[in-house]
């Protein structure tokens, strides 16, 4: 009897289910890009093949991972759990492969980005790169869009993340993000003062142009109350009650508020966050950092701006 029990337990240990790495990557890609069509294009499969992959994942999990939501699919509670584990599994897999291949890789990568993300996902993305390529020197620059793209064009940077209304032909769009009005929680919940005091970068600035155009279109008078060359300066001025600004919600300090359109704040357009390489041939290290940014940025923003299914 005891022998029989031991045999059954041994057989149970053999019956382990190994989740398919390709299927997990498809799941994560579909969630980050906002739909099966986009995921199919990214992974180089037909939509029917992607659907079949996800059905296989449900069979392995033994329960429903998706439910219909309008024209697309949404994750069930079990599906959300699988997604979280899938991200961890893929990150470890990719880090292991990168480390194996990057043992002898050296040199430097010159990377530019707006200050909006310097304290959010940047440490995680660059930390992941540095663990895989400890011999590569990262030269990161935080500046405004115009300055970063100018330095890219003159060969001073290898990769640049930049905000634009529409990305140029040579750019890879990573996310589309709505602009929002941002002010103090306690004071600036509605338009209480005209002309509206604006806290802005000096021109040229995409967000400045959008703020002024939205107020003009709504017939609301405005004035420039404060300008700063840095994002930290803008947040300090808003915190001091000097005015409001326009930015994306993902860059907003937690103690500042997104102002409600329902109480008078005019609609704003969206902006694209894009990755630029200026069409030059990249070094192996720069190419790998590019891959990590493409993998990391969209997923880091979905918590703030969940994508709509295609």
How is this structure best summarized?
The chain is α/β, with parallel strands linked by helices. Helices cover 43% and strands 21% of the residues. Among the domains are: 2-99, Orthogonal Bundle (Arc Repressor Mutant, subunit A); 177-271, Periplasmic binding protein-like II (D-Maltodextrin-Binding Protein, domain 2), CATH 3.40.190.
CATH architecture call of the domain at 2-99: Orthogonal Bundle
Number of helices: 10
Question: For this entry, what is the oligomeric state of its chains?
Answer: single chain
Judging from the principal axes of the Cα atoms, what is the shape? globular
Helicity level: 40-55%
Determine the CATH superfamily of the domain at 2-99.
Winged helix-like DNA-binding domain superfamily/Winged helix DNA-binding domain
Task: Output mean pLDDT.
Answer: 78
Radius of gyration: 23 Å
N- and C-termini, Cα separation: 57 Å
Secondary-structure-based class equals alpha/beta
Q: How big a fraction of the residues is strand?
A: 15-25%
Question: The biggest beta sheet, please?
Answer: 7 strands, mixed
What order do the SSEs take from the amino end to the carboxyl end, as H and E?
HHHHEEHEHEHEEEHEHEEEH
List the helices and strands and how they pair.
Layout: H1 2-14, H2 21-33, H3 36-43, H4 47-61, E1 66-69, E2 72-75, H5 77-101, E3 108-113, H6 122-132, E4 137-142, H7 145-153, E5 159-164, E6 172-184, E7 196-200, H8 206-218, E8 222-227, H9 231-239, E9 245-248, E10 256-258, E11 270-276, H10 284-301
Parallel strand pairs: 3-4, 3-5, 7-8
Antiparallel strand pairs: 1-2, 5-11, 6-9, 6-10, 6-11
